[in-house]
Design brief:
16 strands; 7-stranded mixed beta sheet; Dihydrodipicolinate Reductase, domain 2; Rossmann fold; alpha/beta
């Protein structure tokens, strides 16, 4: 099976390439990138099954020609509002399966609009198969399955875990692309599923959830694809948000910056630097954080006629940094596509295309030793 990784020499793409290459179902790996030197260096490192090609994905003809040489297309090139739909369109035109790590809700909608074209082409496209979205969606599938009827189905993650210490001087404040992306998302309207319909809202709405066996904690809404896609797979649910928990001081620092960016006083780059320089965003000044797992799904509904809440987390998160937790899931999805294990043709989020049991089983070798713990940790209690 031939796989092409578009953007394969980038920080995310390299992890995807190295992980895909160890799957025995993959016979050839094409590393496509505009930086041919980096792509060739990676191909040499991986070995005989890998080759490098120069690719400018803004050149439609070159893109179509490149993806036509593979069986499966993996897209790691952001921002996805620019480079998600065009690469998927090329994969559909070439009749090739597709997967990506898109994490913005706007391009998610644009790519879902290509569902009929993908079905007509007989291909499966899995969009947003990273950590969140990705692992989070499949945890939501597992949480949904625990209840007889589901009212609310949310994906939850810890905010601020990758934020560096407060710099000593403004010159030392160097925001990462991830922080810029976060501040941008907080400043823009978000789309969520509330009262059985899609609704535009402002990020950082505050409410509380109760994790079974742990207790209550404050959470805040943010913009992500999960509330766009989960109601498509589970039309019975009434509410679906992507929410984060964090130290309150961190959220207040982000809110202050977000408001200024939203109101046009500063741009995202300036806002990100101001956020890094905010003295109250780190412990202990920022306050305590709930003892929740780093990523989980949370559902409320009924089971055996009683109001019930359930949370599902996983003990098989890939070890490593952002590249591993994002792109190992992408590589697992590629292997499932290569083995014909997709649940449907068309364009789907992970919950519509991948079997959670197979996915988490394949994820296990990339995690720390389970030491007797289950792959999925289900916590459930009456409300």
């Amino acid at each position: 099976m031939k796989i092409i990784v578009v953007g394969g020499a980038g920080d995310m793409g390299q992890v995807a390439c190295e992980t895909v290459a160890i799957d025995p179902v993959v016979t050839q790996l094409i590393i496509a990138d505009r930086d041919i030197d980096r792509a060739q260096t990676l191909a040499d490192k991986i070995g005989s099954k890998a080759s490098a090609v120069s690719l400018d994905i803004t050149d439609k003809d070159s893109l179509l020609d490149a993806v036509s040489k593979a069986d499966i297309v993996l897209n790691t090139v952001g921002p996805f509002y620019l480079y998600g739909p065009p690469v998927l369109e090329a994969a559909i035109a070439a009749g090739k399966h597709y997967a990506d790590i898109a994490d913005d809700w706007e391009p998610t909608l644009a790519m879902l609009d290509l569902d009929e074209a993908a079905r007509d082409a007989g291909i499966t496209a899995v969009i947003g198969i990273g950590a969140s979205p990705g692992i989070s969606n499949l945890l939501a599938s597992a949480a949904h399955a625990e209840l007889d009827a589901v009212e609310s189905l949310h994906t939850v993650w810890r905010g601020g875990s990758g934020v560096p210490p407060v710099p000593a001087t403004p010159e030392e404040a160097q925001p990462s692309a991830a922080i810029d992306h976060w501040i941008h998302n907080l400043a823009e309207p978000i789309r969520l599923w509330r009262d059985g319909r899609y609704e535009m809202a402002e990020a950082l709405e505050t409410f509380e959830i109760v994790y079974p066996g742990i207790g209550p904690g404050q959470v805040w809404t943010c913009g992500h694809p999960e509330p766009i896609t989960l109601p498509r797979a589970f039309p019975d649910i009434t509410n679906s948000y992507n929410i984060m928990f964090a130290r309150p001081g961190l959220i207040e620092a982000a809110r202050a910056v977000r408001d200024r960016v939203r109101d046009g006083e500063i741009d995202v780059a300036q806002g990100s630097k101001e956020f890094l320089l905010s003295p109250g965003r780190r412990w202990p000044e920022a306050g305590e954080i709930p003892a929740f797992p780093g990523v989980f799904a949370y559902a409320e509904g009924t089971k055996d006629g009683a109001a019930t809440r359930v949370a599902v987390t996983t003990n098989v998160l890939p070890e490593g940094e952002m590249g591993e937790i994002t792109c190992v899931p992408l590589a697992i999805a590629a292997g499932m596509l290569a083995r014909g294990e997709a649940l449907n043709t068309g364009v789907h989020a992970p919950e519509g295309a991948l079997d959670p049991n197979i996915f988490f089983e394949r994820l296990e070798p990339f995690a720390a030793d389970l030491d007797g713990k289950p792959r999925l940790e289900v916590s459930i209690e009456a409300m």
